[in-house]
Design goal:
Largest sheet: 6 strands, antiparallel
Helix content: 25-40%
Structural class: alpha+beta
Number of helices: 8
Distance between the termini: 44 Å
Oligomer: single chain
Radius of gyration: 23 Å
């Protein structure tokens, strides 16, 4: 079974497409919303009627439009982009997408994508055009930028993947997690819960990055390590 990645970022519509194809863009946003509940891998823009008003407002001031989105993909979100639009023909006539054949009307997805199991973590800017294929659509992707992000607690918090995370570089902050320390101190004397013990656990068990919930799964192993230490 494939792992799910989680992506978060923005979708950008060019000034040219807003000026000349605002109605088609509104149809596209509505179709994306209708499709997301049946799509195996979803993309959500938190669609509302207000979002359609944003399209009209951008057209009136002759400007581009950027909206937020989040979504998931099979291993990576890029795989979602390759196949997501195929199902839109169920909700909208393929001819409504003709404007996306033109390079200047490309939709730009800018996002960070994360999948923990395989350590996938990157940021990307990808232009998307569409090509009609009989009754469906083929996505044409142009990668403008893709950068691997180091898999560290600092970056996972910086990009809002985790509210709190721990790795070998910030283990001292774990000592300030009072809920965790109190739970661990039910098995180990509190004065024995030191930075050295946490570092030893991290090294001995080959730990990488652990989030604020998963860290509680470590309690029994830290307890076992503590018992081994006092037996020596």
């Amino acid at each position: 079974m494939a792992n799910l990645s989680f992506a978060e970022g923005t979708i950008h519509f060019t000034k040219e497409s807003i000026l000349n194809h605002s109605e088609e863009i509104k149809l596209l946003l509505k179709a994306m919303h209708d499709h997301q509940n049946s799509a195996e891998y979803s993309t959500s823009t938190n669609f509302s009627e207000a979002q359609l008003d944003e399209v009209d407002s951008a057209r009136l001031v002759e400007d581009s439009l950027t909206i937020s989105f989040y979504g998931n993909g099979r291993w990576t979100y890029i795989n979602n982009l390759e196949f997501f639009f195929n199902g839109l023909s169920e909700y909208i006539e393929p001819t409504h997408f003709n404007f996306l054949k033109e390079a200047q009307n490309a939709i730009t997805f800018s996002f960070t994508d994360f999948e923990e199991g395989c350590g996938v973590f990157y940021s990307a800017d990808i232009n998307l055009n569409l090509e009609n294929k009989e009754s469906s659509h083929k996505a044409i992707l142009t990668v403008e930028n893709i950068v691997d992000i180091p898999f560290t607690a600092e970056n996972l918090m910086k990009y809002n993947v985790y509210e709190k995370a721990y790795d070998e570089h910030n283990l001292d902050t774990l000592l300030n997690n009072h809920v965790f320390i109190n739970a661990l101190s039910e098995l180990i004397p509190k004065n024995a819960i030191t930075l050295d013990l946490l570092k030893q656990y991290w090294d001995d068990y080959g730990m990488d990055v652990v989030d604020d919930e998963a860290i509680f799964d470590s309690i029994s192993d830290i307890h076992e390590l503590y018992l081994e230490n006092i037996e020596v």
